[in-house]
Each structure stands twice: as structure tokens, then as C-alpha cells.
């Protein structure tokens, strides 16, 4: 502060504002470990709060009476299951019976990725229930 006062007396009050601005910018660039820890703690609290809000939203949507709200995950699983049924059972039988008729090709990579992701989450949920961690 003494340096800024000395500069202000040498150059007048007009130089004090740019010097303070540069000082503020440097202060923002170089944060102490304590400030970083406070920021990390605040970020962690915000992430935890958003996870709690999302969990409440998921619980409300799953308990809804309408199938359009509560049935999103089961719907996707049924769509993928029916797609696999068509691709691996019905389509080969149809091509065996009528080889001249071309059957549509389904996006199996996308369905497989979605199905395995959903089954993986269901498997993790089962492990939580077995260990008694789930509430």
C-alpha cells in the first residue's frame, strides 16, 4: 500500500486505478492454498447438493403413475430387448424362410451400448442391495 501511495504522489491520482486493477488481476491469478481449499470445498458441496436434488427428482419420477414418466428406463430396456429379439431370432428365421426378402438392419452398436450400460447400472444396484449399502 505504501508503494501505491508513493506512486500516487509521484504520478498523481490517475495512476492509482490502473495499478489497483493490475494488482487485482494478479491477486486473482495467484491464489493461496487456503483459497483453493475453500473453492474446492464449495465445489464439492455444490456437486453433492445437485446429486441430492437429482436423486429426489429420480425418486419422484419413478413413483409417478404415468408410464410416460415412470417408464423411461423400462421402455428403453424393452426397446433394446425387442431390437435384439428381432436381430438375433426373428430376422434370421425370416431370412432362412424367405432369403429373397431383405430385412432392415437395426443399429445394434447403439442398442448394445445402451443395454449394457443399463444392465451394468442394475448390476451395481444389486451389489449395493446385497451389501446392505442401498437405502
Task: Give a written overview of the molecule.
The protein is mostly helical and 135 residues long. Helices cover 80% and strands 0% of the residues. It is built from six helices and no strands. It has helices spanning 2-11, 16-29, 33-62, 67-70, 72-97, 108-131. Helix 5 (72-97) crosses helix 6 (108-131). This is Holin. The chain crosses the membrane at residues 75-98. Keywords: Membrane, Transmembrane, Transmembrane helix. It comes from Pseudoalteromonas byunsanensis.
Instruction: Return the string of H and E elements.
Output: HHHHHH
Question: Percent helix among the residues?
Answer: over 70%
Structural class: mainly alpha
Question: What is the terminal-to-terminal distance?
Answer: 57 Å
Total count of helical runs of at least 4 residues:
6
Mean pLDDT: 75
- The radius of gyration is 31 Å
How many strands, which pairing sense, and closed or not: the largest β-sheet?
Answer: none
Quote the beta fraction: under 5%
* Unreliable residue runs: none
How many β-strands, per DSSP? 0
Q: How many domains make up the coordinates?
A: 2
Shape: elongated
Keywords: Membrane, Transmembrane, Transmembrane helix
Protein name: Holin
Transmembrane segments: 75-98
Pfam family, one: GTA_holin_3TM
Primary descriptors:
about 140 residues; about 80% helix
Write the topology of this structure.
Elements: H1 2-11, H2 16-29, H3 33-62, H4 67-70, H5 72-97, H6 108-131
Helix pairs in contact: 5-6
Keywords: Membrane, Transmembrane, Transmembrane helix
Protein name: Holin
Transmembrane segments: 75-98
Amino acid at each position: 500500500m505504501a508503494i501505491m501511495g508513493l506512486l500516487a504522489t509521484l504520478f498523481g491520482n490517475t495512476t492509482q486505478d490502473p495499478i489497483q486493477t493490475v494488482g487485482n488481476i494478479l491477486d486473482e491469478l495467484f491464489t493461496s492454498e487456503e483459497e483453493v481449499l475453500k473453492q474446492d470445498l464449495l465445489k464439492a458441496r455444490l456437486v453433492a447438493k445437485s446429486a441430492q436434488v437429482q436423486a429426489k427428482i429420480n425418486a419422484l419420477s419413478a413413483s409417478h403413475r404415468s408410464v410416460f414418466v415412470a417408464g423411461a428406463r423400462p421402455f428403453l430396456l424393452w426397446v433394446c430387448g425387442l431390437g435384439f429379439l428381432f436381430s438375433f431370432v426373428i430376422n434370421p428365421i425370416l431370412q432362412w424362410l424367405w432369403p429373397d426378402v431383405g430385412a432392415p438392419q437395426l443399429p445394434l452398436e447403439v442398442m448394445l451400448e445402451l443395454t449394457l450400460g443399463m444392465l451394468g447400472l442394475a448390476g451395481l444396484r444389486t451389489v449395493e442391495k446385497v451389501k446392505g449399502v442401498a437405502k
